[in-house]
Amino acid sequence: MQLNHLYTLEKNYFYMYSKYTQVIEDVDFVQEKLVSEGGNANYRIEVIEVGDNSFKARATAVVDFDGDGVFDVWEVDQDKHLVEVTKD
Q1: Which residues contact 74 (CB under 8 A, 6 or more apart)?
Q2: pTM of the predicted model, to two decimals?
């Protein structure tokens, strides 16, 4: 859900400035407080790549949901391709 929200914010930013931004504060994205910090969010959200007409954002779990030592990772790009990169 948060990656889809960030995708929408990045697209709006692109329509206004003809570029994407790697600084999530530029698009007014607010990272919810992580469970590891006493909050409710299970994923850390970040923009990991920005090009002239592209971006890629990542959600990395801060919780090992099944206790196997692997943390879930999802990514979304400028075309709204949502991919689970690492499955927990």
Answers
A1: 3, 43, 58, 59, 82, 83, 84, 85
A2: 0.91
